[in-house]
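Suppose you are handed a protein chain with no further information: no name, no annotation, nothing but its sequence. What can you learn? This example shows the usual starting point.
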Amino acid sequence: MSTRDTAHIPVVSASETAPTTCVDAEPYALRVTDASMAPEFPQGCVVIVDPTAEPAPGRFAVAETPSGLVLRRLAAAPGGWRLEALAPGVEADSARPQDLRGVVTPRAGRRRRDHKRYP
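A reasonable first move is to predict its three-dimensional structure. Written in structure tokens, the prediction is:
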């Protein structure tokens, strides 16, 4: 991805997005409750979210939207991020940088084929 694709994402100061307490900086787990991110994250899958990880286009993140928390793939958009679902027919949302609640960490499984690394 070229620098011009991400140049229009506003920079939010560290004081606005930095966790204010140790608890806010702790990774947490969420269960996927629908099929909008299948097949990568099927319904019932548990993901680990790191609130201190740097968001980037192509990464999977949790964001606060008017309809609640959503897990989506990030894409650069004017003024913030575009939140894209993997399932066809699900409309993309938009989010401001301060709406992001964390980035999904790599997934480990019992077998090597189940290990996933996200950009």
